[in-house]
Amino acid sequence: MKTRNKVQSAAAGLAVLLALTACGGAATGDPAESGSKTSNTADISEGIQPDPAAVKLLPQSYKDKGELTVAMDLHYPPTTFLADDNVTPIGLNPDIARLIAKKLDLKLKFVDTKFDTIVPGLDGGRFDFTATTMSKTEERLKVLDMIDYFKAGNSVAVAAGNPLNLTVETLCGKNIAVTQGSTGQLKRLPALNEQTCTSKGQPAINAVTLPNVQEALTQLHSKRIDGVLYDTTSLGWAEKQQPGSFTIIGRVNVGNSDVTAVGLKKGSPLTPAMQTALQSVLETPEYKESLENWGLESGAITDAKLN
Fold it and tell me: For residue 50, what are the domain limits?
């Protein structure tokens, strides 16, 4: 996704955008072998064999079709985005989806989908599943089956050097950006607001809802907002790509679990096979390899828990 970055200089603006829109490569045995992660389109699932237990649970309709459709918002490095060819989905989530498909002995079709339309699309039967760093919430669990595969969470980023000396606990009355349909918008910021501000008679945090993190960081650099509440994984990736573009002041540990999950329509006949396949994925060296490739080792889990 491309967007204009209104920062103090065109060069600085371009650098920040590249940090967030550069497309990472799928994991390989040695990322250094292929140079930039953003140009590596190798398939981490190459050579993975089907899991007989998962295949046995697969409904016949899926065996007949031979393909799974996965919905992802492909604009969120390092978990879900496009390679330099602007065609190949890469990052942790595409890796996981490819591994799942191989365990089920099925082909995989990616559908680039705006994040806040994924749940309605799953509920309406337009996609088979999603792996897009989506956390479990009470609202989502009403319409989705969700199976754990990774720990993520949210953090707050402010202007480089933190000139306002902000902390996660001193955001009352500040303008903080969240992205449309995200857990940050729906759960974490409201919970943080209640815990640190309104329950103590302080002015509320003003949530500024924006379509994507690129626009949020654009507005942060132009001082139209005071901070951004967003996925820790993506903020950490961007900070490493372009040191000094902003400062992460801390994690937001209220409002929701840090565990993210694959999502399917509630009661989907695919769910038992998906859970078995995903558990098999978590036990492969390729799962840890992908996490390491994207700098997400701390997010590893061992149990593909359903709901």
Answer: 10-152+258-299
Check: CB of residue 8 under 8 Å from CB of residue 267: no
13-72 pLDDT, tens per residue? 434 444 454 333 333 233 333 345 667 788 999 999 999 999 999 999 999 999 999 999
**Maximum Cα–Cα distance across the chain:** 60
Instruction: Fill in the DSSP letter of residue 220.
Output: H
Instruction: For 155-176, write each residue's pLDDT tens digit.
Output: 999 999 999 999 999 999 999 9
Helices and strands (H and E) in the chain: how many: 12, 12
How many CB atoms lie under 10 A from the CB of residue 187? 20
Q: Does an H or E element contain 252, and which?
A: strand 246-252
Distance between CA atoms of residues 129 and 106, nearest Å: 13
**Same domain, residue pair 213 and 294:** no
Residue 196 belongs to a domain with what CATH number? 3.40.190.10
Cα-flanking dihedrals φ and ψ of residue 260, to 5°? -110, 160
β-strand pairing of 107-112 with 154-159: unpaired
171 and 32, same structural domain? no
Together in a domain, 145 and 222: no
